Amino acid sequence: MPFPANLAPVSADWKKDLSASVTSPAALARVRPVDAAVLAPVCARYPMRINPYWLSLAQHPLDPFWRQAVPDRRELEDQAAAADPLAEEAQSPVPGLIHRYPDRVVFLVSDRCAMYCRHCMRKRRVGRSASTLREAVAAGIDYIRTTPAIEEVILSGGDPLMLEDAALEEILSRLREIRHVKLLRIHTRMPSSLPARITARLAAMLGRFHPLYVNIQFNHPAEMTPEAAEACRRLADAGIPLGCQSVLIRGVNDDPDTMAALIRVLLANRVRPYYLHQMDPVQGTAHLRTPIETGLAIMTALRGRIPGIGVPQLMIDLPGGGGKVPLLPDSVVSRGPETWRVRNYNGEIFDYPVSGRPGEGDGD
To answer: Assuming Cys at both sites, which of 62, 123, 303, 326 could form a disulfide with 313, CB separation 3.0 to 4.6 Å?
Structure first.
């Protein structure tokens, strides 16, 4: 299906692209084959935003761009899961700031994104309130300043890069003034969802706040368009380490070949695969979630076939605020007092000595 003439063309100006985003079922129905009446109640509960860049890539219901961005009636059929299964609200000492681990906080500085992912872990809040959350940001900075145990601040949202450069720079500057804050991190999907946002000016500004890390989200190799590759290049050239936190999504990347292709294209663009997230059991996402066994099978298939630097950790985030835990394929076949039997990436079995030196552990 060709890009329709009655939709605003993709622009090099990220603000123009945002203003031309499709946000209603009726508007989407004019440019894509969807039933606005079916999607209306979904969007009433879970907002939709698809900017022209992403929509130009979403051509039919089976492609990875469509599945991640276009609402689905099944979002309303998922009532068993919780809206906030990770207990983020319970671990927020002030609104918009999540303090789960002793030494770091997640600071929600925006509630908007350039594209509202249907698999979003924060479907309950994204796109619903004031865009800059000024009062919450001020309260969050005060909390960080008065909590010396906090050494790392992770800007998240929504998407922090939805803020204007000046507003983002102000937040980073105020955090840099806090002596016990050693590391800054930004979680954003902009290099994939709206790469025009990664301007040379933005990259240069971020480069003044080292040590600063940026974690991005790519879920399918086709997302690494020339525009996305240029966005990654600008950030990397500014000396910013890039990590990718992909989400395992049914029908998008839930097979070893797709994940291997994604990893290779990330490495080629100086992005290190960091996490592969088992999708959180968030209400409205059941049709996109995969069994845990799927992720473990993918990790088994990647082992020995992808460079070690490119193999992400398969992570689950424990319900109730228990935090992230890595899952690994079971390589150990059996455990003995002196040797373990271990399976390699080809399925071959080897004996591995577990003692530190010959005879150690045998009781002599």
So the answer is: 326
